[in-house]
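Journal club prep, shared notes

We agreed each person brings one worked example of a sequence with its structure written out as tokens. Mine is Pilus assembly protein. I'm keeping it raw so we can talk through how to read the token line rather than staring at a rendered picture. Sequence first:
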Amino acid sequence: MPIVTRAKQFLRRFGSETGGSVALEAVIVAPFLFWVFLASYVYFDAYRQTSVNIKANYTIGDLLSRETEAINESYIDSMESLFTFLAKTGSDARIRISVAMWDEEDNVYKLDWSRARGGETALTDADINGMANELPTLMDNERVIVVETWSHYSPLFQVGLPEEDIYERSSTSPRFAPQLVWDRYAD
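Then the structure, token by token:
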């Protein structure tokens, strides 16, 4: 009898066999179930961290939108500290806050000011106009506060999710004043 026929018979008998050991089946399935558990945890943790970063970003935008007094460098430093605290990042938290005005006549955004912390650079007029499609539609001379945040996420276990920066951007209109003013004299 050829070896191929014997192999087919063996596989047929093995596949139809219903008597077996639960312990053997558990040994076969347990590593897969353990990997699925770890992967579920890592993906949940990544989504949780993204959600926390979004909330921290919007909180900073909301705080800035309520300011009626001019802000300065120490205020920006405190916003970076607040983001680091709220996002619960171990390190490498970065933030950039910018205020831009829509100029209807020239059909462009004009940057009032921009400040960054954590190694990021401040925006320029070209940068703010490069993201014009992602900013809200404004009326002539209306201003918007753009808050951008980054934090580094590294998964606890390697299950296919890469180590990366979580980037968030929010745009908020000033609430109680026509614009968020930069205190040039406090620098």
